[in-house]
Amino acid sequence: MGRWTTGDEKGVALIIALLVLLVLTLLGVSLINTTIFETSISGNERTRVDAFYTAEAGIQRALAQLPATASIPRTQLGRDSYYWSGTVKDRNKPGIESLGLAFQHGSELSEVGFKRLRIRMTGGSLGAVQELEVQVKCSQPIRPTTEY
Q1: Could you report how far apart the first and last alpha carbons of the chain are, in Å?
Q2: Is the pLDDT assigned to residue 3 strictly greater than 70?
Q3: N or C terminus: which one in the chain shows less Cβ crowding within 10 Å?
Q4: Is the pLDDT of residue 34 over 80?
Q5: Could you tell me the pTM of the whole model?
Q6: Strand, coil or helix: 4
């Protein structure tokens, strides 16, 4: 029968220290990978938000030119940011289209009509693309021409 002696256990501390270092190394590598992944996500979100605000700038330009409904060509906003009227698939089509009249009851017996428009705008920034669509009602009322 063998006896346990303290003289045979000299290498146990080294093995335990190496195992602890291995666990800490794996934890550190995992944390580095998580940090890299989170940085990538936040960079993508920033690029998407830049594309959104670029498209919003195009919407504001389209609203400023109303009631004219001419299409807005690709316009550079920043170093790598562009907007244009329409969607990605129909860059050459007008992005401002009429939806007819929207009637609203006025204080008189007749109804007052307002011109309804749809504005489609696309913004791009650093490869990200964001499409916006806004429906507006022109502020100039259009009165019916019928007589009572």
Answers
A1: 121
A2: no
A3: N
A4: yes
A5: 0.64
A6: coil
Joined together, the tokens standing for residue 104 give: 């609203």
- The three-point CA angle 84-86-92 to 5° equals 85
Provide the CA 68 distance to its chain's centre, in angstroms.
27
Closest Cα partner for 125 from 39, 63, 36, 43?
43
Q: Tokens 């089509």 appear where?
A: 93
What one-character DSSP code corresponds to residue 73? -
d(CA 57, CA 38): 29
Query: In what helix (H) or strand (E) does residue 49 lie, and over which residues does it extend?
Result: helix 12-65
The dihedral built from the CA positions of residue 111, 67, 98 and 51, taken in this order, carries a sign that is: negative
96 pLDDT more than 80: no
Instruction: Give the pLDDT confidence score for residue 146 in this predicted structure.
Output: 47
pLDDT digits (tens, 9 = 90+) for 106-122: 545 455 667 788 888 88
State the residue for tokens 């009851």.
105
Residue 123 identity: G
